[in-house]
Amino acid sequence: MQALENMDRKKLAIAGLVVATIFLFFVNIWSSLEIQSAQLDLTENKLYTLSDGTKEVIKTIDEPITFRLYYSPTFGEISPAHGNYFKRVRELLEHFQVISGGKINLKVINPVSFSVEEDEAVKFGIQGVPLDQSGELGYFGMAAVNSTDDRKNIPFFNPQREQFLEYDLTRLVFELAQPKKKKVGLITSLLIEADPLLQYKPWPIMAQVTQFFEVKSIDSATKKIGDDIDVLLMVHPKILEDDLMYAVDQFVMRGGRLLVFLDPQNETARMTPQAPPGAGSSELKKLFDVWGIDYDEDKFVGDRTRAIRVQAPVNGKDVIADYLSWGIYDKRALNDDDVVTGQLTAISLASAGTLALKKDASVKMTPLLQTSKISQRIDAKLVRGQINPEAILKQFKSENKSFTIAARFSGKVKSAFPDGPPKPKKDAKKKAKESDGDKKPVKLAPHLGESKTDLNMIVMADSDLLTSRFWLQQQDFFGQKISSPVSNNADFLVNSLENLGGSQALISLRSRGLSLRPFHTIQDIKNAAEDKYRQTEQQLSGKLKELQGKLQGLNVEGKGKGKIILTSAQQKAFKQFRAEMLSVRKQLRDVQLALRKDIEKLDTQLKILNIWTIPVVIAIIALVMMVIRRQRYKQQIAQG
């Protein structure tokens, strides 16, 4: 102790710095080895925290999977955004590797130009991006291989899909670790498996389904749905043949699960050339009537708070208005307590119908997606001919109640065919003998008049949400189309299939991190001001029509002779109208000005809250601490 006191203070300071440096060096080494995956995730959707679904998928790996992450460091030097994203990808893959307990092997490879590694990257389908005018290519992609040489890849990691990174990687692991897929039976009147507009390719949403399920099409001549079908998917079903309807009925009676997408007006069917009125509607009335489910195929629901503003040609003029038929239903409309919708952020719908229970219903309904109370059921005829968003908006009158668009149904149900299988028609019998003379007749299972187990069915009263334009945005990246979801439509479909099929591993992560973050308060202010504007406009139109009717009832001198002479009363009426019109126009301008002021005021408040609140709070804390310290200092002086 005495020696320390006698030491030169300068030497003691240098020794302290050396010890601190050595300590910091070892702390850095220890942290990089032991806690390299530790992180604090403060994002609302927990984008940087692995979900339980990811951990469950990784735990199911039975055989080793090798990740080959190809990355050109030069690429990161030229584009820092991609360099930072590479660190994010590598950290997440390292986290996968740790959780897998050695089942995942990560290799980070630099594919130098004209090297064996570059040839390997090209062989695995990794996309090269030109780095400069010399033609040198940079790579940032990944290939994964399992022990049986099954291959999956991500040709290029686009930072625009960062919020879906965990989903993309976990999906890749799932596909390599789970070779056997659940089987989905598909009944549809749409060309979702081979659309001429897509050069007979399936709709993009079907690519989402086939990644996780084996899909088997079921045609209208089917008399029995096999027990190998795990889930029956019905998309926009039209009037079904009795044999097929009976097959669906008995599939449910045996305990089969149903996922149904109905629609009072399917946009794709409406755009089909020479489509008759009502061609876009679908229903399952025969089954729903017996089970006590109320669905009206001639009404769609309009939600004023979720309508999308569109520009549409009407009678040769472009009309800009909120289109009540189209809506984006955010998290407020979704059921947080259900596993299918609990993680979803937004679903885009078009001309959606409503679901409810009848008084004598034998099933229980659990809503999954509901409208706000500012909603109205509207005649579907208004969206089956020429579309006029403004006309639909003008007739809107809220019913002051929420409507259910998607729901889960459960409970015991009875067969819609109490007398057994439908009897074949005479013509059908004759044709069957002629065409199927050599085929063995289909042997039906014993008829069931009541379901063995509780009904397990999910119904969405819209099918347009499956079309690409309502959930997918495509961008061209060096000749390659990169698709980014803008809503959770595909997630709802796949989540429902997985839930009904018994697998829930991917539900917790698929829908995380959508960039759609609407300002609900601002939108509500806009809607309120626009409603006021619309009411004033309707009053003006009514006054105009009333005045025109009065003028037509007057006897005008010179009518039909090329010269019109107005009486003093008529002149007074015109002057009064002009004064009223100018007054109403001023009211409209005042409403628009008030709208802008409200939005600007709210914008200023948000900026102050986000930019200045934290600094002000810190400054106040600092001032308080300074005052406290001064008081303590004065007390010490007074006591000393």
What's the helix and strand layout?
Layout: H1 2-6, H2 9-34, H3 52-59, E1 65-71, H4 73-78, H5 80-99, E2 104-109, H6 116-123, E3 128-130, E4 137-146, E5 151-154, H7 165-177, E6 182-188, H8 204-210, E7 213-217, E8 231-235, H9 242-253, E9 257-261, H10 267-270, H11 285-291, E10 293-295, E11 299-303, E12 307-314, E13 317-330, E14 346-350, E15 355-357, E16 364-370, E17 375-379, H12 389-394, E18 404-411, H13 426-435, E19 455-460, E20 472-477, E21 480-485, H14 489-501, H15 507-510, H16 520-552, H17 568-639
Specify the oligomeric state. single chain
**Sheet with most strands: strand arrangement:** 7-6-8-9-19-18-16
Tell me, briefly, the overall form: globular
Counting DSSP H or I runs of 4 or more residues, the number of helices is 17
Mean pLDDT across all residues, rounded? Answer: 80
Helix content: 25-40%
Fraction in beta strands:
15-25%
The major pleated sheet works out as:
7 strands, mixed
Query: What is the rounded Rg?
Result: 33 Å
Structural class: alpha/beta
DSSP summary, beta strand count: 21
Low-confidence stretches: 273-278
Report how far apart the termini are: 29 Å
